[in-house]
Amino acid sequence: MRHMFFSLLVGAALVLGGAAEAEDMGTIRLGAAVSLTGKYSSNGAFTRNGYDLAVKRINEEGGVTVRGKPYKLEIVYYDDESTPARGAQLVERLIQQDGVQYLLGPYSSGLTEAIAPVTEKYGVPMVEANGAAVSLFRKNYRYLFAVLSTTDQYLRGAVDLAAKVHDDPSKVRVAMAFENDPFSQDVREGVMEDTAKHGMKVVIDDKLPPELNDMSATLTKARVLKPDLLLLSGHDKGAALAVRQVADQRLNLPMMALTHCDSAQIAEKFGAAAEYTLCAAQWAPTLKYSDELFGSAADYAALYEETYGHPAPYQAAESSAAVQVFADAFERAGSLDPKAVRDALSATDMMTFYGPIKFDETGKNVSKPTVLFQVQGGSYVVVYPQEFAEADFIWPTPAWSDR
After folding, report:
1. What angle do CA 235, 157, 40 make, to 5 degrees?
2. What is the chain's mean pLDDT, rounded?
3. 102-131 as b/e, with b when 16 or more CB fall inside 10 Å?
4. Strand 64-66 and strand 126-128: pairing?
5. Is the dihedral of CA 197, 200, 203, 209 positive or negative?
6. Residue partners of 310: CB distance under 8 A and separation at least 6
7. Dist CA 111 CA 152 (whole Å)
8. Residue 24 has what pLDDT?
9. What does CATH list as the number for 153-281+370-402?
10. Per the confidence metrics, is the pTM higher than 0.85?
């Protein structure tokens, strides 16, 4: 079939003192339909890289032990072509034809929403790392678990920062532009709650089309209405578009906060034009988290860059953490029965290089905060929350004529 991609990742064999013992090592097969082509292909690649790196490390360290028996991990992949219907079809294939009993999630909330009913139908546990839409956790799914913070959290920090730097938050004028997809609309939901809490005035509230090619209409309104804060979510394409067009139009914005800055590589691709931009993120290599498998967040970042030749985006980090969660659940379950694994997942309470992971009854991680980077001197520097800050938040953004 067109764009079909199928591969098996087989980890290094564990040597247990002899070839005969090594041959006794079992295999646990995980399945994943990820975006290797289509609009999410870059983030789909990061997702797969994160899964692969975790499987490689776990297998190198001896695999997973279930009731005294060692198992290596293996992943069966298909390309969902960045299409929800295709993702659902492929997950059905993984379960029904390939016999996969444990699923890793796709990239994006929309694709996760498409396949969650399938995994729920068959009672197949899914640990996902890149579907943050809060709506996913309002549908009473019992087999869905997410290691990342939910979307409504992404840009709340920017609203909080704006409130802190202004003497009277009720005078803050906010412009918003959010893609019309589940992820971005949930980001908007969190922003709307917090702007209302502070009494801020929303002067622009635009919905952006899924195929983002131009946001000049929003920026033209911003030039007239002069917002104190522009908030935008449109995945990596939207982040790149915003930075490029704001620079092209030399639009002065005291604060601009985006999602997906690091996966869009705004600092690397746009240089000075990206300076002072705030970037919502799930994770940063400078955070003080660590575990026995990868070491610190910085150790993970170094290993990832050594392996793949580019800095570790949070999409890869959270994907690696999802595999770690499965490995932990297999061992605690003491069984490979999907229901037993599901029950073990629901009781997860662990620390990883990515951060703490503990699921509530809806399957979302309630232990890990989101962070805000600011591009400073060409680097992504954590400025929020305060306990994780590497540098002070620079505000307001200098006018283009002063840069």
Report:
1. 10
2. 93
3. bbbbbbbbbbbbbbbebbbebebbbbbbbb
4. unpaired
5. negative
6. none
7. 18
8. 78
9. 3.40.50.2300
10. no
